[in-house]
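Box 3.1 A note on notation
Throughout this textbook, protein chains are presented in two layers. The first layer is the amino acid sequence; the second is a token string describing backbone geometry. Keep the layers aligned when reading.
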Amino acid sequence: MGALPVFRWRLAPDGYATRRQLRARGLRPGGQEVAAQLKRPRRRRPPLVAYLYRVDLAKPVRPMTPARRAALDRANAARRLCPQCRRDAGYVIPASLGTCVSCAYPDPSPVLRSA
């Protein structure tokens, strides 16, 4: 594998695009290898790197079929289901907690104070 051409931030020639830029045009890389890199220097940190693909080799995005839509809906529903209480949390369960917020931080029983 040869060395990739490296361009500075905002100086890439026409004909190259990132994945997001391809997607905005209704395209996908389509199995092609990374064609170039884009580097943005930063102070006191390593540079930001973006991978570029050739637009002329990109393929159109595959259409969403009813079966793919159903599979995506099932996967998103599974991310909302709490494994502990088995209820739909109404939001995507944070991976850091692993359960819904109610199960992760249960309310302590109210303490009755005598006056």
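Helices lie at 19-24, 66-80, 101-104. The chain has a mean pLDDT of 91.
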